[in-house]
Amino acid sequence: MTDRTARPRPEGTPVQLPDTGRGVLVSGASRGLGRAVARAFAARGDRVAVHYGTRAEDARVTLDSLDGAGHVLVGGDLADPAGAAEVVAAAADALGGIDVLVNNAAVNLPHPLAETPYEEWAELWRRHTAVNLLAPANLSHLVARRMIDRGAGGRIVNIGSRGAFRGEPDHPAYGATKAALHALGQSLAVSLAPHGIAVASVAPGFFATERVAPRLEGPGGEAIRAQSPFGRVAEADEIAEAVLWLASPAAEWASGTILDLNGASYLRS
């Protein structure tokens, strides 16, 4: 287990983030990408707090699938600032501290403007903003403050989206909040670097999960796969590997980056 003893860090002294044995909080880890990320960290030898909102049974499946020991389930409503604080406190207590935060939990519900009544539109924008932007902002503050007080540095990795760049006509609140999440990560990368905390984001394109399996298996599946010149969609494990690298000691100089992971389906410069 990593030493959690708070200690002052002389000015200019580099922070040595452990390569393994770290405490990792993954939000929204009950299934899909969150589960893949939790498994990747556990396989590396880290201890993982598996967060869930309402899918306790799925989260238990994730927990039971993790290599190693010292992992924990942490339930809570991240859209509520008090709930976010409880999640971080529970994870930090169980893990002995948090070295890595992965902001993965998200809402992605369709609401094309021309077909969505105003009351539903307003409510879905409120919900997307609360979960996709305000929750990561609150979790980042809560975790980073603990990292700063401990003087041991850390990593924050945000799960953004290709949709932040190319637009999401049927899911505009999702695209907008992911773009804001990317911007949040870059702002925090600048402000937290003096404390040895690196912050980065990944921007995946379409990837396979249980939730999107019906779309991939349905009549539109071929068109989705054709978005990439590789003729396929990503696997969640491929995204998780990128998250794992951004959270590693070697990736400090990648702080502030937004890493495209879309199989050349959307190019920008």
Structure explained in plain terms:
The protein is of the alpha/beta class. 43% of the residues lie in helices and 15% in strands. It has nine helices and nine strands. The protein has helices at 32-44, 56-64, 81-95, 118-150, 163-166, 172-192, 213-217, 221-225, 236-246; strands at residues 23-26, 47-52, 72-75, 100-103, 154-159, 197-204, 207-208, 234-235, 258-261. Strands 3-2-1-4-5-6-9 form a seven-stranded parallel β-sheet, with helices on both faces. α4 packs parallel to α6 (172-192). Mean pLDDT is 94; it is low at 1-10.
Core attributes:
disordered N terminus; 269 residues; alpha/beta; seven-stranded parallel β-sheet; 15% strand
Question: What's the quick description here?
Answer:
Helix 1 packs across helix 9, helix 3 runs parallel beside helix 4 and helix 4 packs parallel to helix 6 (172-192). Helix 4 links the parallel strand 4 and strand 5 (154-159). The protein contains nine helices and nine strands.
